[in-house]
Amino acid sequence: MSPDKQPTPDGSMQEIDKLIHEPARLLIMAYLYVVESADFTFLMRQTGLTWGNLSSHMSKLEEAEYIQVIKEFKEKRPNTMLKLTHLGRRAFKQYRQQMLQVLEQLPD
Amino acid sequence: MNAPLNLKELERKAFRSFYQDGIWDIFFGLMMFAMYTFTVFNTLENKALRILGMLFLEIFAVFFLIYGKKLITAPRLGEVKFSTQRTKNLGKIILVNLISLIVLAAFAILKTSQPDLFNIENSELYSSVGMGVWIAFITSVMAYFLDFDRLYIYALIYGSTFAAVLLLDLPVLFLAASLLILVPGGILFTRFLMTTKPIQGE
Fold first, then answer.
1. Which of A3, B66, B173, B178 could bridge to B32 as Cys pair (CB 3.0-4.6 Å)?
2. What distance in Å separates residue A33's CA from the closest CA in chain B?
3. pLDDT computed for residue B4 by the predictor
4. Contact call for A35 and B11, based on CB within 8 A
5. What is the SS3 assignment for chain A?
6. Is the Cβ pair B201, A80 closer than 8 Å?
């Protein structure tokens, strides 16, 4: 699913980015959207996901080039920081707009 | 559905989760305790020694804050770079403290050089209450920029304690106030250590 896709005029659910739509990944994207960057421990604590689960979701988001993994050494210890790429940020913004549009069009 | 509000709340909740370790509370408690040691050492003839005693505690409090966050909190809650607005707020706190110091220094200089200006009825009451209000105000501004709710309570404790000590000449109030901050801080810190273990994964 390309993140560049524009929502259809009727706000169709088919246009929703399914990579972001998964609840765990949506939460990860939301946290990375509101901060500059964060490490695995922070995301685990905030989302309540296990290391393995988080790692698997991260791989998918990295594959889609939504997140950037920055590996660095802090006082001789490896530290992995994660941040949204421009593409990821744009995709998340678009996802929000599309979801708002879809939900607004739901009958009462 | 109010998506922008939820995201703001999400960020705020994440930011405030770093206050659950009690380290800031202990820092402010130690700062107040430093004031108490200064007044206790007041009886010492060696002025340098009483200032050194207070400075030692204040430096210890700063080290506890920096290294506590780095060595205790970060391995447990993780590392995160919050928005640039949050970083800018830290700069504002430094600025507020500098202004506060300048105002207090100007006040002290004025009181020494122009004692006649303060030779009014109830001047001691006014200056004590004024000092208390000023300290409470500055600490409240810090609480606002730090987004740290408990600091508003500490601001009240700080302000009223300073005013009372100046007015009643009861330094033991510094000790009582420091305990009032240190005890809940210590409880939070212990609870944090017991319930939040470092995550091993990388």
1. B178
2. 9
3. 47
4. yes
5. CCCCCCCCCCCCHHHCCHHHHCHHHHHHHHHHHHCCEEEHHHHHHHHCCCHHHHHHHHHHHHHCCCEEEEEEEECCEEEEEEEECHHHHHHHHHHHHHHHHHHHCCCC
6. no
